[in-house]
Design brief:
Layout: H1 2-7, E1 24-34, E2 37-48, E3 53-62, H2 64-69, E4 72-82, E5 88-99, E6 102-110, E7 116-122, E8 129-130, H3 135-138, H4 144-158, E9 163-168, E10 172-186, E11 196-210, H5 218-228, E12 234-238, E13 247-255, E14 258-268, E15 273-275
Antiparallel strand pairs: 1-2, 1-14, 2-3, 3-4, 4-5, 5-6, 6-7, 7-8, 9-10, 10-11, 11-12, 12-13, 13-14, 14-15
Length: 285
């Protein structure tokens, strides 16, 4: 891993004619409400270095009554480099899922050209092992956080929430598609700090290959419910820090059990801190 990380500066993107920008760090707190119940809290950090290096961290967990019956934690982190031509090359990615007291983790190590080199699995109660990599599943793919960052950074140039990436999640390959639906004006609320123009888009996962269940599960299950109800999962993004990438400011997902909203409840870029009135500080970990 060290060798791969040391190689990044050598393939650096910025040529002598590329203007250098200051690094930015954006810390975000999201509150997720399902059927009016504050069910999940999520914390995200997006760091962009002046040389194009990026670090993304996401920590999501159930809270309140839901945490007592479904005690789940998810931690995800990605490190990589954005090239001058706009391509994003991940260097490493780690996903950790905690259910009650059981922890499962997957570590991805990428080659300097962005291709996946090694996937190490840490299953609860078992010895770590390297999973065999099939070219059909991995060639030309990136991790899910890098795929999201590509859309967020592109917004600064295009003003749109649009993009398409091939993602490998350790077992399956899929397309992650963001389809732009235009620009809207959002109003701040007691739940959400953001007010202003935002790009609206739908988010769709399209299975390509790998170990998919015959019946949709997880995100696909939720996504297909929304499709039947006439609304695909919808995301709004906006640029808050003039030097940083756009960030998600709102998500709306419709299911047969009701609607789920994710609101940007707190924003901190080291210079400005914005906190929504209904921010649940007691839910912090």
């Amino acid at each position: 891993m060290a060798a791969a990380l040391l190689f990044w500066p050598q393939i650096s993107l910025a040529d002598s004619n590329t203007p250098q920008v200051q690094g930015t760090t954006q810390n975000l707190v999201y509150e997720v409400y399902a059927g009016g119940v504050h069910a999940v809290q999520s914390k995200v950090r997006i760091q962009i270095g002046p040389d194009g290096h990026y670090d993304m961290n996401l920590h999501a967990y159930t809270r309140g009554f839901l945490a007592k019956i479904l005690p789940w934690d998810g931690l995800f982190e990605t490190h990589g480099q954005t090239l001058a031509d706009g391509r994003h090359l991940p260097a490493s990615h780690k996903s950790t899922r905690i259910w009650k007291d059981e922890t499962d983790m997957a570590e991805y190590l990428f080659k300097p050209d962005g291709s996946l080199e090694k996937l190490t699995i840490h299953d609860y109660g078992k010895k770590p092992y390297e999973r065999d990599l099939e070219e059909e599943l991995t060639t030309g793919t990136i991790d899910v956080l890098t795929a999201v960052l590509a859309v967020l950074e592109d917004y600064n140039e295009s003003g749109k929430c649009a993009g398409r990436s091939e993602v490998f999640d350790g077992k399956r390959r899929f397309e992650q598609v963001f389809t732009d639906k235009g620009t809207v004006e959002l109003e701040p609320s007691a739940y959400n700090i953001y007010g202003g123009p935002a790009a609206k888009c739908t988010v769709e996962v399209i299975p390509v290959s790998g170990r998919w269940h015959k019946k949709p599960r997880g995100w696909l299950y939720i996504q297909e419910q929304g499709r039947k109800l006439g609304m695909m999962p919808t995301l709004w993004i906006a640029q808050i820090d003039k030097d940083g990438p756009a960030v998600p400011v709102k998500i709306h997902i419709k299911t047969i059990y009701g609607s789920m909203f994710m609101h940007l409840a707190e924003y901190d870029n080291g210079q400005n801190i914005l906190v929504a009135d209904r921010r649940m500080r007691e839910a912090d970990k």
